Task: structure prediction
Amino acid sequence: MKNPILMLVRKYRAIPKSESNRHAKRQWKKRNTSLSMSNTVLCLSLMFLFLPLFVIVFFSFNSSKDASFSGFSLIWYQKLLFSSKPLWHALLNSLIVALAAAVTATLLGTLAAIGISWYKFIGKSYIQTVSFLPMVLPEVIMGISLLIFFSRINLDLGLVTIFIAHTTFCLPFVYLMVSARIDEFDYSIIEASHDLGANEFQTLTKVIVPAIMPGIISGFMMSITMSFEDYVITALVSGPGSTTLPLYIYSLIRFGVSPVINSLSFVLILSICAIAVLLRSRLKSFAASR
Result:
């Protein structure tokens, strides 16, 4: 028996093509793609994004503090490693807050996305609307409202208040990413797990969570990034002894940009690139196993 699809393809190839179609095809193949508008915009966008990074890396090897390059030196990396204890303390605070806020926001955001997507209850639409407010409100308003809240409950400003604030504004992003993953979920898998005798907890941990794991990881990484680089909300809810890296860098920039910051920036760029390459290989193997 002949394949109908193969017969249709042969029939289409047998149709004589007009001269205008052949001319258009030749012109399309001869087009100059190197000077296209899309490639130009892409190159300009990449230059706008990455050129400041190259400038920072270049001046991190400058032997002087001046804006002009006066010679190659590693003196600022030496000062970064051995003479920048307050900077490393601020970096440690940022890492602690970012990891704690990301873990908490990912856990709460994932459970919220699962509960709101699959269960019906009173006030569901209201909760869905309110959950996006921290994401759309200006950071100044968010920070002032949290500051007033902390002062009303007599909570001392410090790393705890920064952690609560970062968890609050990271939650909507986790909820959004996990909800987008749940929308593509095959609900027949849940019915199959119930038919096989799995209870609600087993279905959640062994069926639902592994299926939406890419969304959970995306929300976790987004939370770390947003918490690590936040300045406005952190400046409003921080207290003595809770200086994070953005606050410390801003305090130095007010008196002039220190090349030590350039050295730290290069170290962070290398670390992030290494983590991205490692996660990319791990996530590809994880996706293949699923």
